[in-house]
Amino acid sequence: MSQREQLGKARRWVVKVGSSLLVNDGHGLDRALISAWAMQLAALQQQGAEVVLVSSGAVSEGVKRLGWRCRPHALHELQAAAAVGQMGVIQAYESAFQSLDMLTAQILLTNDELANRQRYLNACSTLRTLLRLGVVPVVNENDTVAVDEIRFGDNDSLAGLVANLIEADVLVLLTDQSGMYDRDPNRHPDARLIREARAGDAALEKMAADGGVGQWGRGGMLTKVKAASHAARSGAATVIASGREADVLTQIAKGAEVGTLIVPAQEPLVARKRWLAGQLQGRGKLVLDDGAARVLRDSGRSLLAIGVAAVEGSFARGELVVCVSESGEEIARGLVNYNAEETRKIMRQPSQRIEALLGYVDEPELIHRDNLVLV
After folding, report:
1. Which terminus of the chain has a smaller tally of CB atoms within 10 A, N or C?
2. Last residue in a domain, options 239, 267, 295
3. How does pLDDT run across 177-201, given as a tens digit for each residue?
4. Is 137 among the domain residues?
5. How does strand 260-263 pair with strand 196-198?
6. SS3 label, residue 257
7. Do 9 and 56 lie in a common domain?
8. Assign residue 17 a region: left if phi > 0, alpha if psi is -120 to 50, beta otherwise?
9. pLDDT tens digits, 314-343
10. Domain range enclosing 214
């Protein structure tokens, strides 16, 4: 099976829509395109996929609604425009999905949310719950409080980080270009469309940087290539394609040769392990009883508190802990849902007793399987 054909089996999709597409190059929200994307996302969901939508366009829509002739430069004016424009963007998506009897949810993130491990877990849990409920999360940067309005680079990097956050199988970056070219097609008529590349390829980043910004979009093609590298950390493939192409998402799901496919350099499990276990230092240790150790090794299931025999060290929610057997053999590593003190209170106890012991319950698992890797 080819790399393209494998996209049809993708379980989790992150689809990012660029500003120029959404607001039709400054002429206002393109509701026809929004409806078309909604129908395609609905079709993916009906086929069993989980979908997250990352959308730009709040500032551009706000500028139009406020009657300003051009995009401002002052940060407070950009943030004000984002606050006004976000109302229109979300309203348009809500209407489009509501007509298809689908629920949407607004998620506003900043870099701090994804850099802080506790907030990272909170965002992960919320998104995972929404997907389980069949809701389509619509994600954007929280421009009204972000220090730098374009911190994520026109939301390309945000989309890559979200793909990493939910361990997506595929990231689709919809833009006003047919994909990535070896040179800027606006200046070079003989520019060649790159059909397939590998994430992290230095030559690819150089070609993207040489293309400049301009008609390539405010973030430029370079931010899209970097977003693909972010997504590849968890094994996700990335497709850069034109959002104006008819049934573009449906075509991608069918394995059609649409846009530019950027494949991860490693298999998903290896990439996930490298990102989760290799990038972070363990803050504590959980000693597992024989039953829990066997379940993790053989089934790859979530770790429950009842299987923990001892807790070592001091750690906060969201930090990396090492899971070892009673003989000291390292079994797994993962992001823990409760801090060390709380874990000591709930260890050896069934999940249904967590609320009684702590006064609240965050997650029934001590470490969810999406945030746990075997070693």
Report:
1. N
2. 267
3. 899 998 888 788 888 999 999 998 8
4. yes
5. parallel
6. coil
7. yes
8. beta
9. 999 988 899 999 999 999 988 899 999 999
10. 3-267
